[in-house]
Design brief:
This protein is α+β, with helices and mostly antiparallel strands. The protein has a single domain, classed as Roll (2,3-Dihydroxybiphenyl 1,2-Dioxygenase, domain 1). Helix content is 19%, strand content 37%. The strands form two sheets. Strands 2-3-4-1-7-10-9-8 form an eight-stranded mixed sheet, with helices on one face.
């Protein structure tokens, strides 16, 4: 069984920041931090709703800029503060059980259009699967695994 320690030893940490205009944000981050864009892509829900994102490396941390409607809801979920994300290649079902046993708080009743919770408590779209969990103060964290193209 894969453990939290195993996953963290091989994961990379990043942070997701919501932005209202991905093109303007890419220009701003590149200019202000004098950094080149590492990657630009699209995350797509099972329903086909796509969210544009871009990645910069700032001070050793990958910063994901995720385009969102900052005035209300986007892709069925509310705008939220930055999220600490751990990118991994490990399957997430065993990790979910261990995290829950260690006190991580999950909100499986949260509706996220196009990213349903499966029988193991893992959400998935077309491009990735993920676990959202919360600390005692409601700060969201995420483990994310990019799915292989079929």
């Amino acid at each position: 069984m894969t453990t939290v320690t195993d996953v963290l030893d091989h994961a990379s940490a990043s942070i997701t920041v919501h932005v209202s205009n991905i093109d303007a944000a890419i220009d701003w981050y590149a200019k202000v931090f004098d950094k080149k864009l590492l990657h630009r892509g699209t995350d797509t829900s099972l329903a086909g709703v796509s969210t544009s994102f871009a990645v910069f490396s700032l001070a050793g941390l990958k910063v994901f800029l995720s385009e969102a409607d900052l005035s209300g809801e986007d892709c069925g979920h509310r705008h939220h503060p930055p999220v600490l994300v751990f990118m991994t290649r490990q399957p997430l079902a065993d990790l979910r059980r261990e995290l829950e046993g260690r006190g991580a708080l999950f909100r499986d009743d949260e509706v996220v259009d196009g990213f349903p919770v499966d029988a193991h408590g893992v959400r998935a779209g077309r491009n990735a699967e993920f676990l959202w969990f919360y600390d005692l103060d409601g700060n969201r964290m995420e483990f994310c695994r990019v799915l292989q193209a079929s």
